[in-house]
Amino acid sequence: KMASSDVPSHAAIVGAVERLQPEAINILSELVKRGSTLGNEAQSGVQEYVARTFKDLGLDVERFPIKLEDIQKHQGFSPVDWSYEGKENVVGTHNPSSSPSKGRSLTLNGHVDVVPTGPESLWTTPPFQPDVRDGRLYGRGAGDMKAGVAAFCVAFKALKSLGWQPASQVYLQSVLEEECTGNGALACVTRGYKADAVIIPEPFPWIVNAQLGVMWCQVKVQGRPAHVLDTSAGVNAIEAAYYLFNALKELEEQWNAAERPAVYKSFKHPINFNLGKMHGGEWASSVPCQTAFDFRVGFFPGVTVAEVQRQVEACLKDAAAKRGITYTVEYSGFQAEGCEMDPKGDMMQLLGKLHKEHTGEEPKYEPVTCTTDARFFELYQHTPATCYGPEAKNIHGIDESVSLKSLQDVTCVLALFIAEWCGLEKISQ
């Protein structure tokens, strides 16, 4: 694929990445400092920083607002009950100078939204003050997945530092809402961005070959208020909520026991329902008359969101009828189908080959029990997509961190991948 005989050797590319490691740590730190939780994405300034970084790489930068009207008719859309005011994606495009381009095009996609921190008092150092210790960088979003964004920026820069650039189109995408809807990545798809392959450096130090579907659901339970003198006169909405969720946990066990895709055979308990939020009641001596709870449902690839909704609603209806419980069901957030990726495809095989060449370790092709933005490219663009990224600990937990050695290794593999997949051309002076 290489454009000429004097293209940089693999060792030269690795050397360029190693020299840029301080820059990778700096980009990661700057991203972590910008606490881009849901609703704070605009004021955090994270996408502004990404846009500047892309511009410094010499990319054509497009910042565009995520608009509901562009995405809400799409099969992959997840409904929301919040505003999209100020939410934007950033895409940096590299166009080769040789036309037609020699290699295959590539999208490197990453999300810059992060999950909430939990109680800051539990963190060793504040979650949005990046801290380097014991070869790791700590902070919310460090692993999931701001290190991945830093990795693809530096991989691109390493090639340029050697006087070479990709010989085909490369798109760097920085998106929002991967953690709750995926609507950011969906907006890139509906805007018409498309490449021959997609790699998302999520914090999985293996090559992802399947992911579960995920659905978010909210149930509002109506109780009947009463004084604690005679609790039998009331229906305790909080107790009713627990009763309904316990019925859902039985459905979870049924799904785990049922026939499942081969790729998930080795997992003990791949399907998880999580009771994630609850609020209800207003007085210790009154029977609570309203409770809302939000939960997350995992489900296997090949099952539709509509079928999951049908089974969840049937389960709730059956349980509620036994106790005369009144409730409503709403869907906001993830309505995400699962998907499988073909590990024998060209992109997956080349990534594995380069991983082995650089690290000396056999590549692992394994599924995850969550969702990622890879589904949009696989399911709706029929583009091979995977996740492969640095090793991280405590993502979504306390003291989240990423290994800086792993960040460097992933950056090397991505740089080598760009060189082979896209081909290289000399940067014309």
Mean residue pLDDT: 95
Indicate the structural class.
alpha+beta
Describe the largest sheet: 6 strands, mixed
The unreliable regions are none
Strand content: 15-25%
Number of helices: 12
Q: Provide the gyration radius in Å.
A: 23 Å
> What distance lies between the first and last C-alpha atoms, to the nearest angstrom?
22 Å
Question: Could you say which overall geometry the principal axes of the C-alpha atoms support?
Answer: elongated
Secondary structure: number of strands? 20
Portion in helices: 25-40%
Strand order of the largest sheet: 1-2-7-3-8-17
Break the fold down into its secondary structure elements and pairings.
Layout: H1 10-19, H2 21-33, H3 41-44, H4 46-56, E1 60-65, H5 68-71, E2 88-94, E3 106-111, E4 131-133, E5 136-138, H6 142-161, E6 164-166, E7 170-175, H7 183-190, E8 198-200, E9 207-211, E10 213-222, H8 237-257, E11 273-280, E12 290-299, H9 305-323, E13 326-330, E14 335-336, E15 339-340, H10 346-359, E16 365-368, H11 374-381, E17 385-387, E18 392-393, E19 401-403, H12 404-422, E20 424-426
Parallel strand pairs: 3-7, 3-8, 8-17, 9-16
Antiparallel strand pairs: 1-2, 2-7, 4-5, 5-19, 6-20, 9-15, 10-12, 10-13, 10-14, 11-12, 18-19
Helix pairs in contact: 1-6, 1-12, 2-6, 6-12, 8-9, 10-12
Characteristics:
single chain; 429 residues; alpha+beta; six-stranded mixed beta sheet
Please characterize this protein's 3D structure:
Helix content is about 35%, strand content about 20%. The protein contains twelve helices and 20 strands. The chain has helices spanning about 10-20, 20-35, 40-45, 45-55, 70, 140-160, 185-190, 235-255, 305-325, 345-360, 375-380, 405-420; strands at about 60-65, 90-95, 105-110, 130-135, 135-140, 165, 170-175, 200, 205-210, 215-220, 275-280, 290-300, 325-330, 335, 340, 365-370, 385, 390-395, 400-405, 425. The strands form five sheets. Strands 1-2-7-3-8-17 form a six-stranded mixed beta sheet, sandwiched between helices. Helix 1 crosses helix 12. The longest helix is centred in the middle third of the chain and has 21 residues, at about 235-255. It starts with 9 loop residues before the first helix and ends with a strand. The mean pLDDT is about 95.
